[in-house]
Write a structure and sequence with these properties.
- The complex is a heterodimer of chains A (571) and B (151).
- Chain A has a single domain, classed as Methanol Dehydrogenase, Chain A (8 Propeller).
- Chain A has 4 helices and 38 strands.
- In chain A, the strands form 10 sheets. In chain A, strands 1-32-33-34-35 form a 5-stranded mixed beta sheet, with no helix packed on it.
- Chain A starts with a helix and ends with a strand.
- Chain B folds into 2 domains: 37 residues, no CATH class; 88 residues, Cytochrome Bc1 Complex, Chain D, domain 2 (Orthogonal Bundle), CATH 1.10.760.10.
- Chain B is 48% helix and 0% strand.
- In chain B, 36% of the residues are buried.
- The chains are: A mainly beta (571), B mainly alpha (151).
- The interface between A and B is medium-sized, with 40 and 26 residues.
Chain lengths: 571, 151
């Protein structure tokens, strides 16, 4: 009898060993390193999605065409991964060799099998109690960066953490900002030439923010560039006073782009603080609402383009610059929250065009240099409520990234047409604190109310700025976009619909209800030759635009929260 | 300041009519006094409370005004909206609540926060008195079903 038992036991052990072997032999290669060369050529490597914006141009385009306009109707969910948290799920899933690395809200990071959604490891960053109270816009995170044998993640309490790519163990953990002063992080880092580049959130509070680069091996600071010039530096005098400048916000919470040939790093800068009151910071408020071109080795600013000087609408110009070549013309495309799509020469920062994405009435046009010409009826003051300013603070185009198909040069923009009534207020009045206080919100606001509008997806020929098609929807498009060589553009809504559109016509070809609003960004990759598309779902972020006042989209009240990633493939 | 919605008709007074005040007093006594001594949970006496269950500033016009000012200065508006209409955080003006919205529940939520959500505790920033004034202000904004008022 015991011999029989032994035989069964041995067979079991052998069986388990054989079954487990493929896991080690041909399963996800979590240990393999990511090199500079791989990052530079990421646009030509459709099997992986090596950084949150897809590749250094930031175009969120994939050359995969297995899933295409002809068969997208057969796209079905293959797996669902629970992120284990609610609130803003803003990540873009990053994929290398069949392993997906994704962040969740509330400081969580996961590695999972990109073929079936099985967890490989997790990192739950231990956060100080109270950090969510210092974040204007939810405790979300936009994704990881990969380099060498490490995964890099920025945390709400302003740590940058390097994790072992294979195990999720902490290699280093450094603090780059003081969360108690409302300097927090939601950014997906970008690794450039061995440095981990990150940006900061916190311009709804009196802060002075920056872009920082850390040595990927050690976490040691390589450089820090403040986005507001200090005393004596050029541009410092664009704030009216040193006091205003040193508390002027100018956040950097969206991932930039990198041009290896020009060796320039492009990074967006957000709104000045206080958001809606310009009287306390008279001047252009450099470098708020700009894209900076930086030397990636030193952080030195080479040139810039400012979209909204002297902002009194919270047009938070953080949004991504996407690097595109039109023949010999090297430009970046940028959809701004101020409602305009811009084309800017990326060799020198010169304005090429600005065309409206949505209804725009705060500006009547541009000067030759690209400076917007104000419509004074739409400028709120302490005693004048400017009615129906278009667009509201979220655009135009909100922060969710657009996508560019470099083959056609077309750009697809997640958009909305929602307008707002604003009256500003001095410190001690309206909703402002009695005095400016570090760590307390300061919006410069008297009253604000959003007016009900609608969403839209807009395609442009990026070369000329010509609008090619518009698809309207009840709600704003709140996901980042993905375009592919399969002729598709993928977009998500706050009502949970994940959709595929025909790039040529805007025709909706496929849709899937993910269960909660989509506020993150999709990515695509292959495992063993099969194309997958992954999208996070989970309502959240600063959604005051939906409800405050009349409400830009009042039907979103009470939207169910969630926290999943869905992996799709053809049936 | 908006007048406090009348809430007794159809609820408390009806019960008085039906079972008589003496019985009700006895019930109130049992629910208020006994738990305090027997260590029964607070919720029992809160739900039975005929008035508000602890807010010393309820309907106090000056306190409501101060609560409104705190709403701005403490930054409540940044999540819940300029008039508590809801945004990142839930609306506080309707009758849609996660937990039974007694004064004590609101006090605890503001003071200690709600674990697992964005609502952190504000006890380091706000005194108990200030929290009660904020609650008085929040109550003054109520636009929900008057029959659902239990505070």
């Amino acid at each position: 009898m015991w011999k029989k038992c032994l035989k069964v036991f041995v067979a079991l052990i052998a069986g388990v060993a054989v079954a487990a072997m493929p896991l080690f032999a041909s399963g996800p290669h979590a240990q393999e390193i990511v090199t500079d060369e791989m990052l530079r050529s990421a646009a030509g490597d459709p099997n992986n999605w090596l950084m949150a914006p897809g590749n250094y141009t930031g175009n969120r385009y994939s050359t995969l065409g297995q899933i295409n306009t002809g068969n997208v109707g057969e796209l079905v969910p293959k797996w669902i991964f629970s992120l284990g948290t609610l609130d803003a799920q803003n990540t873009t899933p990053v994929v290398h060799n069949g392993v997906m690395y994704a962040t969740a809200s509330h400081g969580h990071t996961y590695a999972l099998d990109a073929e079936n959604g099985t967890e490989i490891w997790r990192y739950a960053h231990q956060m100080p109690e109270g950090v969510a109270g210092k974040m204007c816009c939810d405790i979300g995170n936009r994704g990881v960066a990969l380099y060498g044998d490490k995964v890099f993640v920025a945390t709400p309490d302003s740590h940058v953490v390097a994790l072992n790519k294979g195990t999720g163990e902490v290699v280093w953990d450094v603090t780059v900002g003081d969360w108690e002063k409302a300097i927090t992080m939601t950014v997906a880092p970008l690794v450039v030439k061995g440095n981990v580049v990150v940006g900061m959130s916190g311009a709804e509070y009196p802060t002075r923010l920056y872009i920082e680069a850390l040595d990927s091996e050690t976490g040691a600071q390589a450089w820090r560039t403040y986005t507001i010039p200090g005393p004596g530096e050029p541009g410092h005098d664009t704030w009216g006073s040193t006091d205003a400048a040193m508390h002027g916000g100018a956040s950097t919470w969206l991932t930039g782009s990198y041009d290896p040939e020009l060796d320039l790093l492009y990074w967006g800068v957000g709104n000045p603080n206080p958001d809606w009151d310009g009287t306390v910071r008279p001047g252009d408020n450099l470098y708020s609402n700009s894209t900076l071109a930086l030397d990636p080795d030193t952080g030195e600013i080479q040139f810039y383009f400012q979209y909204t000087p002297a902002d009194v609408w919270d047009y938070d110009g953080n949004n991504e610059p996407i690097l595109v070549d039109y023949g010999s013309e090297k430009v970046w495309l940028h959809g701004d929250r101020n409602g305009f799509l811009y084309k800017i020469d990326r060799t020198n920062g010169r304005f090429r065009y600005g065309v409206p994405i949505s209804i725009v009435n705060w500006a009547t046009g541009f000067t030759y240099e690209g400076r917007p010409i104000w419509n004074m009826e739409k400028v709120p003051t302490y005693d004048y409520e400017a009615k129906n300013i278009c667009p509201a603070s979220e655009g135009g185009k909100w922060w969710n990234p657009m996508t560019v198909n470099p083959d056609t040069g077309w750009v697809f923009v997640p958009s909305r047409e929602i307008c707002v009534d604003i009256m500003s207020a001095p410190i001690g009045a309206g909703l402002n604190p009695p005095e400016r206080t570090i760590g307390k919100p300061y919006w410069g606001i008297g009253t604000v109310g959003w007016n009900t509008g609608h969403g839209q997806l807009v395609a442009f020929d990026g070369r000329t700025g010509e609008k090619m098609w518009v698809v309207k929807d009840r709600s704003p498009f709140t996901s980042g976009l993905l375009s592919t060589r399969g002729g598709l553009v993928f977009a998500g809504t706050p009502e949970g619909e994940f959709r595929a559109y025909d790039q040529d016509t805007g025709e909706e070809l496929w849709s899937f209800q993910t269960g909660s609003g989509i506020f993150g960004s999709p990515s695509t990759y292959t495992v063993d030759g099969t194309q997958y598309i992954a999208v996070p779902s989970g309502f959240g972020g600063w959604t005051g635009w939906a409800h405050f006042g009349q409400g830009g989209a009042p039907w979103l009240k009470g939207s169910r929260k969630g926290g999943i990633i869905v992996g799709f493939a053809l049936h | 300041m908006p007048s406090r919605p009348r809430r007794l008709e159809g609820t408390f007074l009806d019960i008085c009519d039906r079972i008589g005040m003496p019985y009700l007093r006895l019930l109130a006594l049992l629910l208020f006094i006994l738990p305090a001594h027997a260590g029964i949970g607070d919720e029992a006496n809160i739900t039975a409370a005929p008035g508000n269950d602890g807010n010393p500033y309820m309907d106090d016009t000056a306190a409501v005004a101060e609560g409104k000012s705190l709403w701005g200065s403490a930054g409540c508006y940044s999540c819940h909206g300029g008039k508590a209409e809801g945004g990142l955080g839930p609306s506080l003006t309707d009758d849609d609540w996660v937990y039974t919205p007694t004064d004590k529940t609101l006090f605890k939520a503001i003071s200690q926060g709600r674990p697992g959500t964005n609502m952190v505790g504000w006890s380091k920033d706000l005194s108990d008195e200030q929290i009660w004034k904020l609650i008085a202000y929040i109550r003054s904004l109520y636009e929900g079903d008057p029959d659902k008022i239990i505070w």
